[in-house]
Design brief:
By secondary structure, this protein is α+β, with helices and mostly antiparallel strands. The protein contains 14 helices and eight strands.
Length: 396
């Protein structure tokens, strides 16, 4: 040996199931406490349902106090970033993964309530059912990444049960989790029949991971949101799942060019929250909708031109980095025709050997089919004239 020996007075044994309080006759470890039914290990409670539920309730109460403090931070972007990354689901995930207790539901509902209350204070607005459902989606699905503890609790638990099943079986040959099937049954209540999970998936190393199951739940929530939404809401959410459409939410505060109130308005606009009463636009006399869609496309408020120029310059920057020669806003490309088909003219022809006209158009992302309609209109306006002038035409 190497001289190590067990010190019973510094050890404890925990009985997970079926302990009646009596010690086995060959216990033989004087000084060691009798097995305890309730206890905690690495911050995770186990034992009776009452004990586990009580510990989770204590944690939720602590988090609710912290959420109130964070929601009071004057900078909305900082407050929302801390809420998303340091509070909410991520702070309770280890408890949900380790406790099959069915009595956690009330505390998790309370946690979702506190999270919604804090988010509303941070954004300075009220979030109705659809807006809050969207906020609970991942940012890649158009949400704010404020994951619901109630919705994803069973994803965390089944992921943990699945991940540890093999190791538990090696330690205890008779191991069989009694929590697996009830957890799968609860999950299947939120999934369509053709996506139901079962114990047949147990041998698949990817199907029952927490990430995969949570993705299934998020997709169903996204689908339900789209089914209930108006055409304008559907177009808005579709625009939000475009690549990089949510990058600004992940941007560090030291890199941003947005003030706190602007951030609040951007988040409210993202969630389809009414921003003001409907009425006529003071610039163009067209109707101004309550969700602010018209304000993003009104050609007389200056924002349309600025966004157009920013997109053009972003493309120009990429062309410069690739060492592709180009001209900005060239004139007289169509001979005697005064129209200008190019915000940028690529001079090296790329693959087709022709100089290429790139025409940037800004459209409202909340109108179904707006981009395709704008593309069609531009092609009808310029394509034939460009072909006659031996130019390629690409609307963007």
């Amino acid at each position: 040996g190497i001289g190590l020996r067990l010190r019973p007075e510094k050890c404890a044994v925990f009985a997970m199931e079926g302990f009646d309080g009596s010690l086995p006759p060959n216990w033989g470890l004087e000084g060691m406490d009798a097995p305890a039914v309730d206890g905690s290990y690495l911050g995770c409670p186990f034992g009776s349902d009452e004990y586990c539920a009580g510990k989770v309730k204590e944690q939720v109460e602590k988090l609710s106090t912290t959420l109130e403090l964070v929601a009071g931070i004057p900078d909305a972007q900082v407050a929302l970033g801390l809420t998303r990354q340091c509070l909410g689901f991520c702070r309770l995930s280890h408890l949900m993964r380790s406790s099959p207790c069915t009595e956690l539901a009330f505390s998790l509902q309370e946690m979702d309530h506190h999270l919604k209350k804090a988010t509303q204070r941070i954004l300075g607005t009220t979030l109705e059912e659809n807006a809050w459902s969207q906020a609970q989606l991942p940012t890649r699905m158009g949400g704010l990444g404020l994951r619901s503890c109630v919705r994803h609790r069973d994803a965390a638990l089944i992921g943990s049960l699945h991940l540890t099943a093999e190791a538990c079986s090696k330690l205890w040959q008779g191991y069989a989790s009694t929590a697996a099937q009830p957890t799968l049954d609860r999950l299947n209540q939120h999934l369509p029949d053709n996506r139901h999970l079962s114990e047949e998936d147990w041998d698949d190393k990817t199907t029952l991971t927490q990430r995969n199951v949570s993705t299934l739940l998020d997709f169903e929530a996204y689908k339900n949101l789209m089914e209930k939404g108006s055409p304008v809401d559907k177009a808005r959410i579709k625009a939000l799942i475009s690549p990089k459409a949510s990058a600004w939410l992940q941007q560090g505060t030291e890199e941003r060019e947005i003030q706190s109130q602007e951030f609040q308005l951007a988040c409210a606009f993202r969630l389809g929250v009414p921003l003001f009463e409907s009425g006529k636009c003071p610039r163009c006399d067209m109707m101004m909708d309550e969700k602010g869609v018209h304000a993003t496309v009104c050609r007389k408020n200056g924002g349309w031109t600025k966004r157009h120029d920013r997109v053009r310059e972003a493309i120009a920057k990429a062309l410069s980095a690739a060492r592709i020669p180009f001209l900005r806003e060239p004139k007289n490309l169509l001979g005697g025709d005064s129209r200008k088909p190019a915000d940028l003219l690529l001079l090296n022809g790329l693959s087709d050997g022709q100089e290429r006209c790139i025409d940037v158009t800004i459209v409202g992302g909340h109108t179904a089919g707006a981009a395709k309609s704008a593309e069609k209109a531009k092609v009808e306006k310029y394509q034939l004239a460009c072909q006659k002038a031996n130019l390629s035409f690409t609307p963007m």
